[in-house]
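Sat 14:20. Reprocessing the chain from the morning session after the first attempt stalled halfway. Input below, unchanged.
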Amino acid sequence: MAAKTPRSAATRRRLIVAARAELVAREGLLEIDSVAARAGLSVGAIYRHFGSRAGLVGAVVDDFYMRYRSEALELNPAPGARFAERERKRTELSVAFHYGDPLAHVILSSLHLDPEVAVSEAAHIDALVELAARVMALGVRRGEIPKSRDPRFVGAMIIGGMRHVLAVALAQDPPIPQRDTSRKLWVLIAGIMGVDPEEHTPVPPH
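Finished this time. Tokens:
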């Protein structure tokens, strides 16, 4: 693997962007020669930075999930709001992220069929479940969701349900309208968590 210098990091990023564009344009297919040409770099650069085709695709998948976490999951989307309102907004952010990124459809519909990619993606899904479980556990401790809800079980249902709903919504031609998907997905998630899907009242300031 190439050393992590600023120039190396820039080249690596350039290759990830090119591979991402290739996967989107070819609906999950990727050829090393084509990615190198798209990036304006040699094929050897790909192997120096990623080791193999699978390594390159894995880096694209890693980049997707890291952006998803930072833009939708690892933030407070409604400071000062009640649990239900906050998680409704998080659901909307998650849907918006997937609708706004054309790679989402590729990842949800076909890329996971690659055995090597599937292993990497499974690790990301596990991490998302753990993240959701921590949020649910906090909600239980604060009395915001029923104590009968097992945080990890609920987290797995939310992440799994969201993933499959988004895969179906994005696969339609044309895709199901984003607003409809957000609304229906939130009703599903609220039911899993045991909260009122219509609760939008912010917590009064202290």
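The CA atoms of residues 83 and 142 lie 9 Å apart.
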